[in-house]
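#random but structural
TW: two for the price of one
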Amino acid sequence: MTEEERRTGRDETEDERADRMWGELIQEVRVAQTGVQILFGFLLTVVFTPKYAQLEHSNQVLYIVTVVLGATATGALIGPVSLHRLVSGRKVKPQAVRWASRLTFVGLLLLLATMTAALLLILRVATHDGYVPWLVAGVVMWYVVCWYVVPLWARHRHTSR
């Protein structure tokens, strides 16, 4: 493949494209990192409140699952920063962008799972009504539409072939 064929409609080299994509990715990660870190920080404090000891065993298990999901989401969303720091200057930016993008995608899936579990836990404690799973399912569907369906539709609809 020639240099001209590798270009993507912009007048940029592979390295320039990697630099641009890295900058965009880091901006996106900042938004997700902030949210997951705040959520994870709040989750960590729950176990130290008097109310925690009064939770039903199933809610304590759900809490532990939620904290573990939050920890894994945090790890995946901070991963691109560590990746960049460890490979910086090694002339592997295009590969680093691909790996960082994958870590970010996994982090977003884990964030979705964390938010789902946290919402389920909070609503189970706040109300013992049978509609809680339905309410959580509705919110999760909203996340899926906003985070995946609309972007995938836009990618399919507006990507030139």
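TW: number two ↓
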Amino acid sequence: MLNKTNGLIYFLAFSSGFSIMGIELLGGRILAPFFGSSVHIWGSIITVFMLSLSFGYLLGGKLSIKRPSLTKYGLIFLLASIAVLPIALFAQPIMAFIFTHVEDSRYGSLLASTALFFIPTIILGMISPYSVRLLVTDSEHSGQVAGGLYFVSTLGSALGTIITSFYMVLAFDVNAIIIGFASFIGCLGLFAIAFDKLIIKEPVYA
């Protein structure tokens, strides 16, 4: 039966998937004023997100080996929140600098995407493998747990894409949405840490 701790982890994984795809979708709107919105702009954004997520999965898996806990899990969210915030604060000067120094929009957009999204997406990518480690209690059910976790995370990504593109961008400024995502991710991290410190008492993880 799904206990409260597992339910929280699934919710956090869902929320991280929601946030990742929401931020990725906003990447096109952020880069468009300088580099346009052609297919190679989106190619740059998708490439940077896929590459940074792959590094995040690798780092998250390694980190989860050493005494995994909800507190460390929450700290990943807090670190991701801090890393996302500069996208809203410094995107304009960063893109203006790159735009004036790189003539080819293909490489300019790739460099801008890397500067803005590479680090925060690496940190966000660490969440999924760490979630699996917290949920898996025996090897017999590890495949089932991983499948369920990635289902929930991908469902969050799908909803993040549709809600951001259909509703958020129509109601709010892009920077306001980015700040909202950063705040949301930070609050999730604080909640996970508080849950671990104040509610969970029994040792769950080896």
